[in-house]
Amino acid sequence: CDTETEVAQKFGISKYPTLKLFRNGRVQKREYRGQRSVEAFKEYIQEQTKSNIQEVNDLKMLNDIDEKKRNVIGYFNSKEGPEYRTFQQVASNLRDDCDF
């Protein structure tokens, strides 16, 4: 905070250590509020970098989707195409707002 005042000011950093998460080049709104230890940071980053896309393999899974939440459903012939990569980016950017 004291050494890199411009960076601290730009990202609203006022204490050390502070963890800011960027996804696809954008700083995320939700800030880390957990313990300030290496292990806690590690667990948080591991959780945040896991894919949040849940594959639906049968009709029962589709019927069990929580209708009270915002859900985004995509259908793709392959995970190799640009459409799926775009879906992954959207899912990553909106992971705090919607279920995929």
Question: Tags for this entry?
Answer:
100 residues, mainly alpha, two-stranded antiparallel sheet, 4 helices, 2 strands, 36% helix
From the alpha carbons, calculate the radius of gyration and give it in angstroms.
Answer: 17 Å
**Terminal Cα span:** 36 Å
Number of helices: 4
SSE order, as H and E? HEEHHH
> In terms of per-residue confidence, which ranges show pLDDT below 50 for 5 or more consecutive residues?
none
Work out the number of β strands.
2
Give the fraction of residues assigned to helices.
25-40%
Shape estimate: elongated
Pairing-aware structural class of the strands and helices?
mainly alpha
Largest sheet: 2 strands, antiparallel
Mean pLDDT: 85
Q: Numbering strands along the chain, what is their spatial order in the largest sheet?
A: 1-2
How much of the sequence lies in strands comes to under 5%
What does this structure look like?
- This protein is mainly α and 100 residues long.
- The protein is built from 4 helices and 2 strands; from the N terminus they run H-E-E-H-H-H.
- A two-stranded antiparallel ribbon has the order 1-2.
- A hairpin with a 2-residue loop joins strand 1 and strand 2 (26-27).
- The protein is elongated and about 55 Å long.
- The mean pLDDT is 85.
